[in-house]
Amino acid sequence: MGSAYILSQIVNGVILGSMYALIAIGFTMIYGIVRLINFAHGDIFTMGAFTTLASLALIGLPFPVALVVVVLTGALFGVVIERIAFRPMRGAPQVTGFIASLAVAIILENLLVMTISAQPRVFLVPEYLNRLVSTGVITIRVIDLAIVALAIVLMIALVFFVHFTKVGIAMRATAENYDVARLMGINIDRMIMLAFAIGSGLAAVSGLMWGSKYGQISPFMGLLPGLKAFVAAVIGGVGSIPGAVVGGYVLGLSEVLFVGLLPPEYSGYRNAFVFGALIVVLLVMPNGLLGRNTETRA
Amino acid sequence: MLRIEDVHVRRGGTHALRGISMTVNAGEIVALIGANGAGKTTTLATISGLLRPESGTLSYARCAEAAPIDIGRMRAEQIVQAGISHCPEGRQVFAALSVTENLRIGAYLRHDRAAIDADIADLQTQFPILRTRANVPGDRLSGGEQMMLVIGRALISRPKLLLLDEPSLGLAPQLVEQIFDILERLRREGMTILLVEQNAAMALDIADRAYVLEAGKIVLEGTGKDLAGNADVQRAYLGAA
Ligand SMILES: Nc1ncnc2c1ncn2[C@@H]1O[C@H](COP(=O)(O)OP(=O)(O)O)[C@@H](O)[C@H]1O
Ligand SMILES: [Mg+2]
C-alpha cells in the first residue's frame, strides 16, 4: 500500500464524512430543541436527491440554482413535517414522537415509490463536475472537492449563526428551556421551525451531494446514511453541533479506512463495524465525545 | 399598575389558584408569601403568561398615563414586550450560554444595539462578576453569581414590573442580604416589584404591602409591618412559638 493510496482513502473518508456530518447536524439540532429522534430525517436526504434530479433533468436548471432550490425545498419539507406530524405530539412522551417520525419516514418512502418507482435512477451531474483534478499525488473529481468545500462553508456559516447572532443564541436558549426562553420574549414555535428548516435544508444538500458523487439514487437511499448520521450524532454527543461534525468525520474516515486498509474479505463487515463503534463509544463515554449531560425534557 | 381579579388557574388536576385578587401599585414592593404548594409560583407564571387563567382578569398598565391592557389572554412574549419581566424559581440561567449571552438574550426584544451594549456595561459595573466571568457558561457560576445574572438578565429588557420567585432560595445569609439590598435600590430607582418569598421575615420587612396565600386563596393582606405583627402570620410563617 503506497502513501498515495492511503491519502486517497483519507480523502474519500473526508468526503463521506462531510455528507454524514451535514445529516448529523440536523439530527442533533432537532433532537436538541424538541428531544425528538427524527427517524424521517434520512428521508429528507432522499427527497433532496430527488429534488436535485427533478431540477436538473426535468426542469433543466443550472447546477448552482438547483442547489439553492434543494436547500429551500428541504427546509420547507422539514417545516411542513414539523407542523403536521410533530407539533401535535409536543409534550407527549419521547416514544410517541419517535413513532410519529417512523410513520413520516414510511409515508415519504411509499410516496416516492408510488410516484417514481422503487427502481434506482441514474443521476447525472454537469460535465464540468466530473472533470478530474490532479494534485500531483492523487487525482480527484471536481465534484469531490466541491462537496467538501461546500460542507465546510455551510458548517462555518452555521457555527457563526448559532454563536454570534441573536436568533442563534435564542435557538440555543430554546433548546435548554422553553419556559425560560419564552420569558425572554422568544417565540419558541418559531425557533423550533427554524431548527427543522436548517437541519432539513442541510440533509437535503447532503442528498444532492450523495447523488452527485455516486450517480444513482433510490427511494430507500436515505436509510443507511440516515442511520449512520444518527450514529455520528450520538458519537459526537447528541445535541452538540460541533459533536455532530466531529462524529460525522470520525465515522466517515473510519468506515472508509476500515474497508480500504483491511483485507477485502472484511469489507462486508463495514456496517457492523460502524454500529459496533457506536456501542464502544457509548460504553466509554455515555454523553458522546463532545456532549453535555442532557436529560429528557421535563 | 397590576390588578388581578378573581383569577382561577388549574394545573393538571389541581385547582391551584381559587379566585385570587390582588393589586400592585407603581413603585411598590409587594410581597407574596405562603407555604410550599400554596400557589405562589403559579401566580407569577399566570401574570407572565406561561400559564393561562381559567377565569378572572389580569389588567396591567405600564405607566399611569397608559390605558390598562388585559394580559390574561396575551402570549408570554407580548407580556415581556409590555414591560413585565419574570425571574423564575430556581434562577434558571441558561447553562450552556455564556454570562454575556445570557444578558444579550434578556434583551431579545430590543433592537437598539448601542443602548443594549451600554446597558450591559452598566450592569457589569453594578455587578462586577458579570464582567469578570463574562465568557463563562452560566452553569459554572455559584448560586449567588447566578442570582446576579438572573436579575441582570431581567433588567436588561427594561421592565416596569419585576416578578421575582424566591430569589433567596439556597443562598448564604450575606448573599440574601445583598439581594434584598439590590431590591431596595431598584425600588428607589422607580422599579415596581412583586416578590415571592419563603423567607417571610425579610420579605415582610422590605415590602410596602404583602399578601398571604394559602391553598390557592389570599387569606390575609396588609402592609408589610401589619402582617409582620399579625399573630397568625408569626405562628405560620415567622417561626414564632
Ligand atoms: N407542573 C405542575 N403540574 C401540575 N400541578 C402543579 C404543577 N406545578 C405545581 N402544581 C400544583 O399547583 C399547586 C401550586 O403550586 P406552586 O404554584 O408551585 O406553589 P408554590 O410556588 O407556592 O410552592 C400545588 O398544589 C402544586 O402541586
Ligand atoms: Mg414556588
Keywords for this entry:
heterodimer; A: 298 residues; mainly alpha; two-stranded antiparallel ribbon; 4 strands; B: 241 residues; alpha/beta; Rossmann fold; four-stranded antiparallel sheet; 37% helix; binds adenosine-5'-diphosphate; binds magnesium ion
Provide an overview of this structure:
By secondary structure, chain A is mainly α. Chain A has a domain at 21-222. Chain A is 73% helix and 3% strand. Chain A contains twelve helices and four strands. Chain A has helices at residues 3-34, 41-58, 63-86, 94-116, 127-130, 142-164, 166-176, 178-183, 188-214, 223-236, 241-261, 270-284, and strands spanning 121-122, 132-134, 139-141, 216-217. In chain A, the strands form two sheets. Chain A has a two-stranded antiparallel sheet with strand order 1-4. In chain A, helix 2 runs parallel beside helix 4 and helix 3 crosses helix 9. The longest helix of chain A is centred in the N-terminal third of the chain and has 32 residues, at 3-34. Chain B has helices spanning 40-47, 76-81, 99-106, 113-126, 129-132, 143-155, 173-188, 200-206, 224-229, 231-237; strands at residues 2-11, 14-24, 29-34, 55-60, 69-70, 84-87, 161-165, 192-197, 209-214, 217-223. Chain B contains ten helices and ten strands. Chain B is 37% helix and 26% strand. Chain B starts with a strand and ends with a helix. In chain B, the strands form two sheets. Chain B has a six-stranded mixed beta sheet with strand order 6-7-8-3-9-10, sandwiched between helices. Chain B has a four-stranded antiparallel beta sheet with strand order 2-1-4-5, with helices on one face. Chain B has 241 residues and is of the alpha/beta class. Chain B has a domain at 2-89 and 159-237: 3-Layer(aba) Sandwich (Rossmann fold), CATH 3.40.50.300. The mean pLDDT of chain B is 94. The relative contact order of chain B is 0.18. The chains are: A mainly alpha (298), B alpha/beta (241). The interface between A and B is medium-sized, with 16 and 25 residues. Magnesium ion binds at residues 40-41, 89 of chain B.
